[in-house]
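[job 0412] stage=fold_complex status=start
inputs:
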Amino acid sequence: MNRKVLLAGLVLAGALVFILFAGLGRDPQAIDSPLVGRTAPPFTLREVGTGRAVSLDQLRGRPVVLNFWATWCGPCFEEHPTLVAAARATPNAQFIGVVFQDSEAKIQQFLDERGRAYPTVIDDAGKTAIAYGVGGVPETFFLDATGTIVAKHNGPLTSEVLEAYLSKAAQ
Amino acid sequence: MNATAGRLLILASLLVSTAGALVAFAAGRSRSAYGLKWAQRFAYLFAALMVGATAVMEYALVTHDFSVSYVAQVGSRSTPLWVTMASLWSSLEGSLLFWGCVLGLYVAVATWLTRNAYEEYMPDAIGVWLACAAFFSFLLAGPANPFVLVPAQLDGPGPNPLLQNHLLMVVHPPFLYLGYVGMTIPFGLACAALIKGKLGPSILKPLRESLMLPWVFLTFAIMLGGWWAYEVLGWGGYWAWDPVENASLLPWLTATAALHSIIVVERRRVLKGWTVTLILATFLLVILGTFMTRSGVFNSVHSFTQSPIGPTILAFLAALLVFSIGLLAMRIDRLEVEGNFESAVSREGMMLFNNLLLVVLTFTVLVGTVFPLVVEAIRGRQMSVGRPYFDTMVVPAAALLVFLIGVGPALPWGKTSWKQIRRAVLPPLIGAMVFLMAGFLFGARNPWTLLTIAFGGYAAQVTLWQMRSPFAQVQRSPRRIAAYLVHAGVVIVMIAIAISSTMRYTQEVHVVKGGTATVGAWTITLAGIEQRDEPNRSATVARFVVAKNGVTKTILEPRMNQYERMREPIGTPDVYSTIGGDFYLSVMNIDPAEQSAAVNVIITPLVGWIWGAVILMGLGGLMALVPAFRFAFAGAPRAAALTLARSDGV
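[job 0412] stage=fold_complex status=done
writing structure:
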């Protein structure tokens, strides 16, 4: 038995397998948002239904979940129940839906059919989506109490992922 | 019907390969000739079952049997027949089935060629082959089953549009599989040698030949992939250090090293453990490459999106690593050293140097490929390793390799006097000077390009000088002449890569119908824009008349292909190739309403030489095998004895 070969081989192989294992489940196409760690861009948008102005500045002091979505997006249908349930279960966090490239009538219908638990605002000109660098809906930003973006998620949320991000935002 | 038949064949292949592996290892332990016979029968049966399952899948594809899950996933009534047939390897499950089929054929042919020889090694070798076969049968039976029975639909989406976009894409994957899968055979032989604790002279020939054949295929495959990228992707390049390109290069580097070190084992009886290690590493890198493509961990044009078999392949890789390292640790000291290194400045010294360089290159590329994963695992941050890293690290090593191709064969074997060395090493400097001046006149100014050209000239003179004598005695020494053909190919490839990558000229132009644009000596005129409807796609084609110095040369039609399944169109370039270089048009935008087009004009010198020279390399490799096949058919032991008796290897 050549111990040197065994030891060197196992160390190298172990490191390689560990790195590859850690990489499993990673989405190579996902790119971290450069906004993470920075103050969320401010906005004041009209709430669907009531027409009142909702501004991000009013919401300082507790975690905020900012969900960009649209009624024409399939995965947004999937994640909607998860968001509604989470918003009801965590009253100390403020959820906000931001809809862009959509009509108010369609949004109303969507919310009537699928339930609402938090305000939904409409981003008529898409300026807020541009400020947040939204590439495709759904995308969700998690803000802490000071208004700093702590995480961003691309694609539909599951309840486990949502909870993990929420606890990060609550810290 | 097809789904059930295919499924049964796969399950049978899993049973046969597992049983065969067990029988073979048992026969190896007990040295039973009877057991070996049975192991051989299992090997043939496995091949028959895999070929059968693949035939069932091809039949299902061609007859549009959408009740088979894989056909429902990649089949389409609107694709041409050649695309339908090639759909076998267009997606995850089908390509693994194709892998199984190729593995079956390799195992059957290797078993048959060695049926009356190497009795000492064969049971364990067949055992290792069938154990690998069992893993792939398991993948096909469970995690990547292509034969799931699904509710039949009327039509399917068709394969990945990139596959349909160019004929080269139909040729590249089979060559890659022939290269990748073929490495199983030398791996099995090397493992058998380790298990027996002996790398005798008789096993070297099958080891070398079973490594050479997949090496040839892999060489072609890498070139075809680069050529495809060049012809289809529209950025005018052929190599981007994409993780999956690297995955094909890594085993090629170690296999190239092993092909040289086997010669040193043959001639000097040294480097046995090293050679076996290289062969094991080659197969491990093949499985690593498979993981890279299939796990969804790496971003690449090749990734089979987020496939579920990543963990299974990783487990297989881990098991193979433990097995190989354990085997090496237990047996490497038993591979007795019979000879010794007499001098570093000798043919074998240069081969060892070439081996070290190739291994350093392998590590460099491997580290660059997995480094982003390391950073992400440790620091949780994303990063990417770009071209500059690879170019900075690889270019000097590659230039040095070209130098070794010159200086290695110039030196004699064994101990040499300084006078002999001077006589061998100095004259080719003339070739180096001639090439250097030619390169300078050609316009090359990049120091690395000039160095590569000079080393290339040195190597060219040595290669031609050495070839001169074996040509006269080609009957006696086909292996030598074959090696020099490969070397000549490598030298041309390296010079062409150096020149084409540093002397490329690119310019963006915007042309309206009837208008012209001038780029250097070239003029392009937009003759018109057409809409073409083809069965599987629609295309917007820009017709350009291309002229050089006022003389019309050709018509180029770069286009935007729109496939039903894709949201964005795929831009497809068009190329005018000449011996001196390529004139390449890649569309960025075509506006049919305004009858205008924006194109990227790319002028690249010598790029066509790369494809031609790689074909020369492959043919050289095949030439090294041809007489070998003849001997193998005549009876392996006699052939081995002949080879040893002649002992005129390069």
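[job 0412] summary: The longest helix of chain A spans residues 3-23.
[job 0412] exit 0
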